[in-house]
Amino acid sequence: MRTKLLVATHNPGKVQEYRELLADLPLDVTWLDAEGITFEAEENGDTFEANAILKASTYAGAAGLLTWADDSGLEVDHLGGWPGVASARHAGPEATDQDRVRILLSRLEGVPYAQRAAVFRCVVALAWPDGRVFTASGSSSGVIAEQPAGTNGFGYDPVFFIPKYGRTYAQLAPDEKHAISHRGRAARRARVLLEHRLAKETGE
């Protein structure tokens, strides 16, 4: 028995990552655009967890589907944790990934490598239409590169440099990135919760 899972995003890059991460589960993964859902859930929480729960609960109620939502972002030590929960929104609703990266790099101009440490954080929330919600989190440490490199991924991936690999997120193959990324780690923890709940519901 397969279950329809709504991934609460309008971002095709993000839904593709989750399709890859959840490919071996009995799920039919859909997303907001495919379901004709055009409105944006309000993200007014002051933490990644609060925003993930808001999104998951809002879309689960609207669509009547089991919903997977995340909130993730970049925290740069030198900038006091900025952009944090505003990672996707600080440049305005019309800004592109390239715009956001350009603003970040401008704020770090002249800052030496040793002071460019950053952490990517992600919280996944799973919400059922009946109001049940569960969360899982993950993080990944790196350094903000001086220039973008690589064409894979999205968002800040081209400037999130992993010293151990000597490459940015955007230079890693998808399976390499999933193994170490904040979203991959949160997703693996969330899928354990999801598998457990699905097994209970189906009696397997």
Notes on the protein architecture:
Helices cover 32% and strands 24% of the residues. The protein is of the alpha/beta class and 204 residues long. The protein has a single domain, classed as Maf protein. A 7-stranded mixed sheet has the order 2-1-3-4-5-6-7. β4 and β5 form a beta hairpin. It is globular and about 55 Å long.
Tell me, rounded to a whole number, the average pLDDT: 93
CATH architecture: Alpha-Beta Complex
Beta content: 15-25%
Strand order, sheet with most strands = 2-1-3-4-5-6-7
In N-to-C order, the SSE pattern is EHEHEHEEEEHH
| Radius of gyration, whole Å | 17 Å
Domain count: 1
- Given helix and strand content, the structural type is alpha/beta
Main β sheet profile: 7 strands, mixed
Low-pLDDT runs: none
Topology:
Blueprint: E1 3-7, H1 12-21, E2 27-31, H2 48-63, E3 66-76, H3 97-107, E4 117-127, E5 133-144, E6 160-162, E7 167-168, H4 174-180, H5 182-202
Helix pairs in contact: 4-5
What's this, in brief?
With 204 residues, the protein is an alpha/beta fold. It is built from five helices and seven strands, in the order βαβαβαββββαα.
Name a few traits of the molecule.
204 residues, alpha/beta, Maf protein, 7-stranded mixed beta sheet, 32% helix, globular
